């Protein structure tokens, strides 16, 4: 009798640089003896720079790579073999489509779900776990209706909380074995949209870091200027567009500040224009995307991480910065206050306030290297206690086991 759990992981785009936390979670589960098969709708192969992501690409089954003809043919066969199930899934897709996203899009999800259901049964998967409560959770829910195994999903935010009705979040939770939030704040938002009887299904499993990748922190740079690093996709919710103004204000208050922006994205032209408009080009370096070693090097060269986000879940980059022994300047939003202790491991400021952000930069600039090092040490101890990927994966494995056994 087979003893090893066989779990399918489902994402929209995988691997990609912004979801390395999923890769860590998968590998931690495998270390605990769980067999994980990766499924994704697509992957941007050309954007991958990290060797481990390239390894993951080779291990991931890309559903849309099969082509429309093969997927539609499979769905047609599913409808002929199981007309009742298929009609139920079709009705469900149309209902979800009316709420948001469109019926055509949900027909595509239905076709993807039919393929996933067949593959899950052929591979004898015990359970499917989707990351993000958007289309991966929709496909998983439809897959279950089509006769596939039980499913669960992790909600990260903020996207899911922007459109909970349009995303049919309530129905996805109701049909799931369980749902996971990455912070207590996130679970509180799920409480808002789940039926009360489904509250026991809602759990907190943090995104985790691998302590082995973060040995004792390197020494803080001994420089007169404050070196800050921002890591992430250049998108509206991340708030990088405020940084040039905040740096200009901090400079006017006598602080010498330099910011390294690691990442890329649709807001890059606007960020570059803001840097030029505020006359702070000499205070910024844009590196583009870096691999994990490059990110760790960027953190080592900085005194602190700066993250002026308008909306978040609980950012992985905050955990990585704290594990690297660096203080964090971030905004009072979502799960940030659950991890960052204002004045102890960094500074929390109101979102969207460049003056407050600048004042935090000035305060950090005036803080001695010894005190910054102490703040970084306090942050490291806190994140290693709360976000060890092995501990968090064990929580998830226990939930999988209970779901399969129920």
TrEMBL record:
Top-level lineage group: Bacteria
Statement: the UniProt record of this protein carries the keyword DNA-binding: no
The keyword Transferase is assigned to this record: yes
Key words, A-Z: Transferase
One Pfam entry name: Glyco_trans_1_4
Alphabetized GO MF terms: glycosyltransferase activity
PANTHER family xref list: SULFOQUINOVOSYL TRANSFERASE SQD2 (PTHR45947), TEICHURONIC ACID BIOSYNTHESIS GLYCOSYLTRANSFERASE TUAC-RELATED (PTHR45947:SF15)
Name of this protein: Glycosyltransferase involved in cell wall bisynthesis
